[in-house]
Amino acid sequence: MNQHIILILSALVIFGNNYAFDNPQALQDQIIDQLELTVFNYNMLYSIFSLPNIFLTVMGGIYIDKIGGGKGVMIFSTIVTIAQFIVALGGVFKSFHIMLFGRALFGLASEQLIIAQNVIITSWFKGHQLSKATGIITTLPEISSALNSFFTPLIYEQTQSIAYPLFTSVCVCLFSLICAALLMFFDKLRGTHDLSVYQEEKQPTLEEIRLLPITFWYLVLICTLTLGIYTPFMDDISDYYQKKYHFNAVLAGKLIVIPYLVSASSSFFVGRYIDKIGNRRFFLMITCLLFILAQLMFGSLDEGNSTNPNWQSIMPLIIQGFAFTFYSCVTIPAIQYIVDQKFMGTAFGILGMMESLVLFVFPLIAGKIVDLADTVSMGYKNMSLFYAIIGLIALLLCISLYHYDQSTKLDFIDPNNPLPDELLKSTEYSMVTKDEI
To answer: SS3 string of 318-354?
Structure first.
């Protein structure tokens, strides 16, 4: 029973974080108009969010190891709530700089909140339970993002002010803060300390980090590039659908819920299927291909008009949702399988830094691409081409990984406990490869 409470509270702790994170996406057109911004300036609201995490992700993980996951969740949930309140004040005073400061503070706390949440989940769920728990806490954030996309435009339509939907997010963050307090309370009742496991192991040295396998670095680059396609694009998608396909703000908000719902509803089944058959290197390529296909469709579909928006644009939204599902079920677990447990925190700290760097840079590049185009619609078409090229680079890395990782470890159903016939096939493959060389 206590495990179920911990699982539910752990998911709800980041509900407000993810709802508030996507606020600008649902209000993109309104923020740009009322604050008189360019697309480049607007995208700074997301870039500044990621900037602190380029430098602080690893240090934040070390700090949480010292104070424990329960206290970490409470501290960083509080900062997230304060940060969103500052963002909402920026909406009241129509001050871009206040909003920018709030988003920077938000970014400082957000990634650390997720790390603290994972510390608690890891300490409460072991073995086969961990996959189920991790799946649940990665699915709910997509639902909160979908709710934001659905309700925020409706609230704006009723109030004609960006302040009201921003303060609605503050209320959602307060709800998550209450859940954080309850989570810390129940975690203390267990009588365990989050840091005990970590204190028993020696912290990895720089020399040991250099010994991380080459496959890990391949996977970090693939993860970083694919997330760099998904997240910045979804940050611009509301305005994309209004300007390119000519949906109104409310209808666009309803449509862009689709990728979130597709991902949330399919991740359990896709993950379960991959766990049964393995072949992760193949599914890494499928992930990249889906991202490329979605972006090519976004860019190539005909523009709509005010009386007849392009309803065919629903199809790439569905593909985008499945692409993120494969990202969640293939790329992240692949890193967990390839890295030794004592390096896990460091490995994900490195991944976090790389992803934050891309999430800082890519929105600025995309915004500049849109601003430099003759029309906004043409700018968004060029932006999709940019993301498709990024997907192609990730695909080439996957193909290169197929050639490099001759052990085929990622293709095992359980890479850490391969079946005898899998080991036999791996040995035969290695013998053939050596003979060819």
So the answer is: HHHHHHHHHHHHHHHHHHHHHCCHHHHHHHHHHHHHH
Give CA–CA dist 4/7, Å, rounded: 5
Buried b (16+ CB within 10 A) or exposed e, 250-278: eebbebbbbbbbbbbebbeebbeebeeeb
The model's pTM: 0.76
pLDDT digits (tens, 9 = 90+) for 51-90: 877 777 777 766 776 777 788 899 999 999 999 999 999 9
CB 369 within 8 A of CB 236: no
**Could you tell me if 310 and 301 are in contact, meaning their C-beta atoms sit under 8 angstroms apart?**
yes
- Residue 256 DSSP one-character state: T
The beta-carbon contacts of 383-388 under 8 Å, at least 24 apart in sequence, are 383/233, 383/236, 383/240, 383/299, 384/233, 384/295, 384/296, 384/298, 384/299, 385/295, 385/299, 387/229, 387/232, 387/233, 387/291, 387/295, 388/292, 388/295, 388/296, 388/299
Cβ atoms 402, 283 nearer than 8 A: no
* Backbone phi and psi for residue 308, each to the nearest 5 degrees, phi listed first: -145, 80
- What is the distance between the alpha carbons of residues 304 and 172, in angstroms, rounded to a whole number? 35
For residue range 362-382, list pLDDT tens digits in order. Answer: 988 998 898 888 888 888 889
pLDDT tens sequence across 261-295:
888 888 778 877 887 777 788 889 999 999 999 99
- The DSSP secondary structure of 171-236, one letter per residue, reads HHHHHHHHHHHHHHHHHHHTT--TTHHHHHSPPPPHHHHTTS-HHHHHHHHHHHHHHHHHHHHHHH
Q: Torsion-angle region of residue 160: left (phi > 0), alpha (psi -120 to 50) or beta?
A: left
Q: Which two tokens stand for residue 363?
A: 């929105």
